[in-house]
TrEMBL record:
InterPro entries: Slu7_dom, Splicing_factor_SLU7. Involved in pre-mRNA splicing. Associated with the spliceosome. Transmembrane segments: none annotated. This is Pre-mRNA-splicing factor SLU7. GO terms for cellular component: spliceosomal complex. Residues 149-179 form a coiled coil. It holds the Pfam family Slu7. One of its GO terms (molecular function) is pre-mRNA 3'-splice site binding. It is found in: Nucleus. GO terms for biological process: mRNA splicing, via spliceosome. Keywords: Coiled coil, mRNA processing, mRNA splicing, Nucleus, Spliceosome.
Length: 521
């Protein structure tokens, strides 16, 4: 690269900016093609070993490009020279110089052109086509003339016209034989195209039985015989590769004519004509074989000496025993469920049939209330309306604040006795007043001292009898302060501070040290 001064670098940079803006024409390479000004300089500048001073993109292109092969092909049927007598070195059969006797494609003559010196074949045009491309070497349709197919179409149309004429003549002959030409012949002539009412593309009933049979020669050890082989494919079947024309769909192998995957996975199964070859492979005894193999592998992983390929008889026997035990356990589990909950398929007992329906007349209003008659509600097989402890309602007939209770007394304890309306009013009063009560500390201290005296008297052995007026009215009324003193003095075995308090008080009972605990509180 030649040395450039600072001014030259600045002018080159301004020129590049003008080319990018479209104000200056683009730079041209050595082949006369324009170079995109937006391509970076490190791509347009050639390496030093190419000895190129101008920007070029030759080093970026394919340097080993052999060019594209044209559509050239051998000229079919072109003759070069027509000889009149046999020449030395020519084909002994036809007399052409372009091939040898072993490569001759003509019918072998009884006496070749070498000896008869007659009917000398002309020389063919020999061409040497050098195809370099991968596709051109493997193009099976190279040299095919599409005009040749026009002759096939013309021949088919001529045969179709002849077939229609023959069908028309046969139909007219049948009409004349049945003496009905007066009515039917007019209809046939009016149609004019010789078409037939019935669809000729469909097979008839008498031909349907033998449609799938293919006559072929079957060789046996005792000699040749003619047999028939069933052809399972019919004309109405759609080819597998035509079900889904997407190039990314299931792969079709033309050699084995197999398509293992489902070509239409999103289509409903009821509308599919083909589910893939793997769908057929999963049928039959495949599921049983897969279960046997899986059982053998699982048993081997758990330490059992069994192998499907090494000892298949043992593996099958163990799997059979496993299935028998599994069936027995399932039957036992089913029997236990039926025994506990009953079976819907079993006939209803007589006592349930009686409750299913009756002829009693009951009349309701628009709100669903009974106007006339007595409503009979069918009961279940479980116990209902069981009333205990003098309650008039069942447990669960009342609910408040996330708890169930009795509707007769509003009690939340299931084993409590009914207190009637008084209990319901008391429960409502407690809710209105709230559970927190204001206690007098002096009365609480007095109740604690009284309780301690009773405990000391019990420890000292004071077993004096009750006085004659100990059960008089109001003597056994318990105040809230006394209840608080009782709760404070109550011994709690699950309290973690009991052991510590006993150690501090020298083994004294926690019940005796209740006053100190209250004072600390």
């Amino acid at each position: 690269m030649a040395f450039k001064t600072g001014d030259e670098w600045r002018r080159q940079k301004e020129l590049d900016e003008a080319r990018k803006a479209g104000l200056a024409p683009a730079e041209v390479d050595e082949n006369g093609r324009e170079i995109n000004p937006h391509i970076p300089q490190y791509m347009t500048t050639a390496p030093w070993y190419l000895n190129s001073d101008k920007p070029t993109l030759k080093h970026q292109r394919n340097w080993n490009d052999k060019g594209k092969d044209g559509t050239q092909w051998y000229d079919r049927g072109v003759k070069v020279f027509q000889a009149t007598k046999y020449r030395k070195g020519a084909c002994e059969n036809c007399g052409a110089m372009t091939h040898k006797t072993k490569d001759c494609l003509e019918r072998p003559r009884s006496k070749g052109a070498k000896w008869t010196n007659k009917n000398i074949a002309p020389d063919e045009k020999v061409e040497d086509l050098k195809l370099t491309g991968f596709e051109s070497k493997r193009d099976r349709w190279n040299g095919y003339d599409s005009k040749e197919y026009a002759r096939v179409v013309d021949r088919f149309e001529q045969l179709e016209e002849l077939r229609k004429d023959i069908k028309k003549k046969e139909q007219l002959e049948r009409i004349h034989k049945k003496d009905e030409a007066a009515e039917v012949a007019v209809d046939v002539e009016a149609s004019g195209d010789g078409t037939i009412d019935e669809d000729e593309t469909k097979i008839k009933e008498e031909e349907e039985a033998g449609f799938g049979e293919v006559k072929k020669r079957v060789r046996t050890t005792a000699g040749g015989s003619t047999g028939s082989v069933r052809n399972l494919r019919i004309r109405e079947d759609i080819a597998k590769y035509l079900l889904n024309l997407d190039v990314n769909s299931a792969y079709y192998d033309p050699k084995s004519r197999s398509m293992r995957e489902d070509p239409q996975p999103d289509k409903p199964a009821s509308e599919k004509l083909f589910h893939g070859d793997n769908f057929v492979r999963n049928g039959g005894e495949y599921a049983a074989w897969q279960s046997l193999t899986l059982h053998s592998i699982t048993a081997h992983d758990k330490g059992l000496d069994v192998h499907m390929q090494a000892n298949p008889s043992l593996a099958e026997m163990l799997y059979k025993q496993f299935k028998e035990k599994k069936d027995q356990l399932e039957d036992k589990s089913k029997e236990d469920v039926v025994k506990k909950y009953g079976s819907a398929a079993a006939p209803l007992p007589d006592e349930v049939k009686v409750l299913t329906g009756s002829e009693r007349y009951v009349e309701y209003d628009r709100a669903g209330r009974v106007i006339k008659g007595v409503e009979v509600k069918a009961k279940s097989r479980y116990e209902e309306d069981v009333i205990i402890n003098n309650h008039t309602c069942v447990w669960g007939s009342w609910w408040r604040d996330g708890t169930w209770g009795y509707a007769c007394c509003h009690s939340n304890m299931k084993n409590s006795y009914c207190t009637g309306k008084a209990g319901a009013m008391a429960a409502a009063q407690v809710v209105e007043d709230g559970p927190d009560l204001e206690l007098d500390p002096k009365k609480v201290d007095a109740a604690l001292r009284k309780l301690e005296e009773c405990e000391r008297a019990a420890v000292d052995g004071d077993r004096s009898k009750r006085k004659h007026n100990s059960l008089e009215a109001g003597a056994d009324d318990v105040t809230p302060e006394e209840m608080e003193a009782y709760y404070l003095k109550k011994a709690r075995g699950d309290d973690p501070l009991v052991a510590m308090m006993q150690a501090q008080n020298g083994g004294v009972s926690a019940a005796v040290t209740g006053t100190a605990g209250y004072e600390l509180l």
